[in-house]
Structure formats: structure tokens, C-alpha cells
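Protein modeling request. Please complete all fields; requests missing the sequence field cannot be processed.
Requester role: graduate student
Desired output: 3D structure, C-alpha cell encoding
Chains: 1
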Amino acid sequence: MPSESEPRRFLIATATAHYKNEPSWDRPGLVDARQDIIDLFTKQFGYEHVSDLGLDPSQHQLTERLRAFCRSSEREDDDLVAVYLAGHGEVLDEEDGGGHVLLTHDTDPDDITDALPTELLARKMLSGTRVRRLLLLLDTCYSGQGGNELTAAALRRLNRAWGTVSETGLVIVSSAQPFEQAEAGAFPRTLREAVENVATAGHGPKALALEAVVQQMNAQGGHQRVGLTQVGLTGKVPAFFPNPRHDPQLTHVDLAVQQEAAWQREADRRDVELHTRLLKRAMGSADPGRHGWWFAGRRTALGDITDWLAESRSEPTRCALVVTAGPGSGKTAVLGLFAALAHDELRHTVPVHTLELQPATVAAARSIDVAVYAQSLTNQQLLEALTAAAKVHASTIGELVEALQKRDSPLTVLIDGLDEATTPDTLCTGIVRPLMEHAGHGIRLLLGTRPHLLPGMGLLRDQQVDLDADRYADPEAVMSYTMRNLLQADPASPYRTCGPTLRRAVAAAVAGAAGRSFLVARIAAGTLAAVPEVPDPQDAEWRANLPKHAD
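Delivered output (551 residues):
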């Protein structure tokens, strides 16, 4: 029962499940549908069920009993009245006068034009009555059409008295659009699911927003689209649906659940980036269908990154290290290897012994908390990725810095593809650099980018892992990678059957032309593997035409 300060709530629920003049119209499923509505409104929303109409009303019974209830002297201006009507509905042809009609228990199948015009309900319930807050649930075929006509009729019936009461209005929820048929029982089921869905509202709001309820109903799929129409509103929409979860003390729970969900969405995005970008580049195969690891060498680069990661997390010598170089150098492959080793599940799929990785490298990689691939990310998206990784709520870079300063140990983040972000320059100057300069020991950044962005972060190229520098040159790795491509890039590769001396001479020529570019080596070797004939590696013209790395 409502308290003295709350309005009274009344439900009238009826359904035409049987038709005395046309048994083929019978819809016995509507008996349970009506009961579902009664249970929902009385048990969840606190409505009092007015049972005068019951099941299978005639046209006269329907209109007169609705009219009698609405005109009763017991009605008060702030009463909340909900009416559920279920049954067959039809749209008349224009030559028959057009409009939506409700088929009642006594409708003559040979004279449907004499069925109950849906718009008549507006006059019966609103004209000369004290009803000011009316929710009409139309669960019929083509009910959207009926709702539109009811709306038009209601606008003609609303009088000035409506404006003297706050939070008044007529709300029509239609189970189907104007040209859609309705499935028996679908409307009550989707309504209950929407009401019980925390996505509609958590514990905070006292009432469920009608728009949110309808949105959730439509989000459940199905061929029907629920419609919502509101007219005569004075102030807020009447609270027809009290929130069954309302508990102010649990509002913080809602926020925590929403925050966890947002963090999980970010984690899912990182997982996609890892599998589709970083891992693929680390494995080194040009064929997305291949799952073997083609990574080769880069021992010096791996060693320097390992040393940086292994520095004391409480007092690191520098908070950022960048793996940089021109295109094709393999910087994403290097960073992708560390990202894979940092992942709890993927770590076990990396062939550590085959790749001859040092135990220190495997151990150091585990200090990386998250790997982000910045391609096409905006500044805001990177900020959201970092706040999710740190599990803090921060809407600005300043708030994130403040949160990181409070950490007992640094957050270690790998970010590759800075130069491929939506706005690389502002991302580096507006997000990355402030973290480096103001977050103290709260964050460590292992970055991947081309050299031109280094000045914007206040970094010197010769202090980074520059894969184009002589220190990191690895001709043996390029040669090994070239040989792997010649043998395995194409299943019909002629290098599988040619002599090892010839194969090695071709690989040496390709690797020599590629220089430090693993990308050039992959393209050239992959192209040769697809050609049936093996070239003469001593042919000066052939060697001159090999793709070369641009120094």
C-alpha cells in the first residue's frame, strides 16, 4: 500500500483471449500474458488491481467499466492509473473510415468496421473525469497506429484543469509499430526483463524512466518494436514504474559496478589489440593463417629493454624508454614479444627456447601491467585506457597524474604505435609527456614510435632503443628471417627443393639489399617464394632490382 505521501496506484488489466463469433481468432496465450502484467504491477510496482473487467469483455463492458472507474467520485487528481489492453487489433481500410480498432469478445467478423475505435478510449477515460495520470499499455497488432490515434484524440480532450496538477500526462506504450503484428505474451515478458535489468536503472532513481524501459525492451531483439508516446505532460513524467531496486545506500554499488564494467570493456579492447596487432607482428609471419613464430635475433635490443624493465620499481633511473626507428625496422615485433610475454595466458605459447630468449627477459616482461596499441586512438581514448589499467576514476590527465602519485609501486605501461594515433603530436605532448614529468614514480612507459615524435616528449633519440642505430644492427637476424620467408612464405616455394648453397646465396642477396628492414626482407623473400624459378644470385641485373631499404 502507498504511504500517505505517495499517490495511489490502480491497474486495470484485461485481455480478449476468446471470440464468441470467430473461434479462429482465439488467443489463449493472452490469459497468461494478462496475469504476468498483474503480477508485475501488483508485486513489483505496488499497484492495486481493479478486477471489474476480467477476461473477454464485450465492447460495451470495456468502454462503460473504464468510464465508470475514471468518473468515480473516489478518483483523485494524483492517482496513477495503468490500463493494459490485450487482444486483436486491426487497421480499417480508408473506404471503411480508416483507423485502428480493437476486436472485443462480441465483435462480428462480418462487420469489423463496427469494432471499437481505439481513439474512443481517450474520450471514455479523460473527458469529464479526474484522471490526470494515465498509462495505457496497448498489446495488440498494429497498436502503434492505435496509439497515434489515441494521442490525437487525447490532445482534443485535455482541458485546462490538467495544468493545475503537477506531473500529469497520458503515456501510451504500444507493443507493435503501426504495420507490425504482435506476438502473444512477448510484451509482458520483455517488459519484465527490462524492469529487472540493472541497465535500465540501478539503485539510485526512485522511478524507472519510461524511455529507458522501452529502450531495453527493444534491445532484446525480436520482430516487434515497442513504441512510446507521451502527451499532456506538466513537469516530470508521472512515476508509473517505481524502481524496485531503489535504495539510496546502494547507489555507490551501482557506480562501482558501472566502473568495473567500463574497465572490463577497456581490458577487452586491449586483448583485441594484442591478438590482432602486437602478437601478429611479434610472430613475424606475413600470412595471417600461420601460427608459427618467425621472430629472429634482436638480442641487444631485447637486452636493453630487459635491463630497463628490471630496474628497481621504487627508484627507476628514468620513467620512459622508447623503441624507435623508421618503418620496417621491427619495433612493433620487439614490443609485441614483450606484450605476449607479459600476458598471463599467451606467455605459455611463446617458444622461449626456440627463440633463445634469456630467462631475465621472460621475467622482466611480467612487470608490464598493460599493453596498448595506439593506432587510431584519440587522446581521450588513450586516457581511458590508462585510467582503466590503473583502476582509477579520472576524467582529465591531471586527475590521472594525481592518482598515480599515490601508488606504492609504478604502473608499467607498454604503448606502441604513438605515431599512428589520431593526433600523434597532441597525444604525446598532452598525455604522455605530462605523465613522464609529473606522475613521479607512479608510472613507467615503454613506448614505440617513429623518431619525429621524440622532441615533443622531451626525449633524445640517442638515449633510446633506436633500431636504426649501429648498436642494434642485426644482419644475422635479417638473414635468418629472409631464409624463413623463402622456405615457408609459399607452400610451393622452389627454395624447399633447391640446394642449400643456392638457397643461402639468394637469401644473402635479399638480406643485403634489405639492410636493417625486416619488412623489405619479408616482401622480397615472399615474392621470390611465389615464383617457380630460382634466380641466379650472381646476376648483377637481378641483384640491382632487388627491393632495398631506404637509409
